[in-house]
C-alpha cells in the first residue's frame, strides 16, 4: 500500500469519511483477511451465546408455557388470552435480551482480535511514523479481555438507563438514541486506546472532549442497532469497518493534538 496516498492530518484534524475507511481495508489483503475472520468469529460467538442464553432463560420458565389453559367459558377464555399475551411478550423480550447479551459476550471475547485489527490499521496508516506502545503478549491479551468486560458491563448500565429514559414523554427516544450512539463510539474507541493502556475513565473523558466526532463515529452503528433481530449480525458485519474507521479518525485527532502542542512549544 502506498502510505503517501493516505491524507496526513494536522490540527484541526480533517475528518476521514467512511467511504475512505472502506477502500482503506480493500487496499490491504491483511486487513481484508483479518476482517473476514473477525466477522465469522463474532457471528459464531454471538450465535453460540444466543443459543445458550435462550436455553437458560427457557429452563427458568419450566412447563409454564407448555401447559396451555383450557379455553372454556368466560374465565377460561380470559386465562387463555392472558396466557397467549404473556407468552408472546416473554418470547419477544427474552429473545431481544438474549441477542444483546450474546453480542456483549461476543464483543468481550473478540476484543483482542479487534485490538490487533486496530493496531494493524495504525501501522499501515502511519508507516515509518508508527509509534508502538505495549507489545502484544498474554498479559496484554488478558488486559484487553478485562477492558472488554468493563465496556460490556458499562453497556448493561447504558441499557438500563435507556429503558428508564424511554418512558420520558417527547424526548425519551432522542435520549435513548444518543446513549446508544455514544456507547457505540466507546466500543470502537476502546480498540485504539487499548494498546495505549487507557483506563475506562480516560476513554469516557475522550468522548466528552470530542463530542462531535464521537457522535459522527457512533451514529451509523446506532442506526444499524435499531434493525430488529438482524441487528446483531449486521453489527458483526460492520464491526471491522467501524473499527478501522474509528481508529483512523482517532489517530488523526490525536496526531492533530500532538501537532498543536508542539506548535505551542
Helix and strand element order: HHHHHHHH
* Mean residue pLDDT: 80
Q: What count of helical segments does DSSP give?
A: 8
Radius of gyration in whole Å, from Cα?
A: 22 Å
β-strand number: 0
Considering DSSP H and I runs of 4 or more, what fraction of the residues is helical? Answer: over 70%
- Termini gap: 34 Å
Biggest sheet overview: none
Overall outline:
elongated
Task: Describe the protein.
With 265 residues, the chain is mainly α. The protein has helices at 18-26, 29-61, 73-126, 138-165, 172-194, 200-209, 211-225, 231-264. The two termini are 34 Å apart. The protein is elongated and about 85 Å long. Helix 1 (18-26) packs across helix 8 and helix 3 runs parallel beside helix 8 (231-264). 78% of the residues lie in helices and 0% in strands.
Amino acid at each position: 500500500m502506498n502510505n503517501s496516498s493516505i491524507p496526513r492530518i494536522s490540527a484541526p484534524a480533517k475528518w476521514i469519511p467512511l467511504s475512505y475507511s472502506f477502500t482503506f481495508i480493500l487496499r490491504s489483503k491483511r486487513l481484508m483477511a483479518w476482517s473476514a475472520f473477525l466477522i465469522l468469529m463474532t457471528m459464531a460467538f454471538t450465535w453460540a451465546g444466543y443459543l445458550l442464553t435462550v436455553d437458560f432463560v427457557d429452563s427458568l420458565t419450566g412447563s409454564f408455557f407448555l401447559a396451555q389453559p383450557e379455553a372454556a367459558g368466560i374465565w377460561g377464555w380470559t386465562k387463555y388470552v392472558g396466557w397467549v399475551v404473556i407468552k408472546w411478550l416473554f418470547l419477544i423480550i427474552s429473545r431481544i435480551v438474549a441477542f444483546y447479551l450474546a453480542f456483549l459476550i461476543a464483543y468481550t471475547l473478540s476484543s483482542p482480535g479487534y485490538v490487533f485489527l486496530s493496531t494493524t490499521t495504525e501501522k499501515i496508516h502511519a508507516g515509518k511514523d508508527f509509534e508502538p506502545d505495549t507489545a502484544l503478549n498474554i498479559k496484554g491479551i488478558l488486559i484487553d479481555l478485562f477492558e472488554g468486560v468493563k465496556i460490556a458491563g458499562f453497556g448493561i448500565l447504558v441499557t438500563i438507563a435507556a429503558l428508564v429514559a424511554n418512558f420520558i414523554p417527547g424526548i425519551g427516544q432522542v435520549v435513548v438514541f444518543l446513549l446508544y450512539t455514544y456507547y457505540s463510539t466507546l466500543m470502537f474507541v476502546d480498540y485504539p486506546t487499548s494498546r495505549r493502556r487507557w483506563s475506562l475513565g480516560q476513554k469516557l473523558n475522550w468522548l466528552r472532549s470530542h463530542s462531535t466526532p464521537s457522535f459522527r463515529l457512533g451514529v451509523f452503528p446506532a442506526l444499524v442497532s435499531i434493525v430488529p433481530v438482524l441487528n446483531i449480525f449486521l453489527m458483526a458485519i460492520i464491526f471491522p469497518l467501524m473499527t478501522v474507521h474509528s481508529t483512523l479518525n482517532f489517530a488523526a485527532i490525536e496526531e492533530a493534538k500532538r501537532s498543536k502542542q508542539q506548535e505551542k512549544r
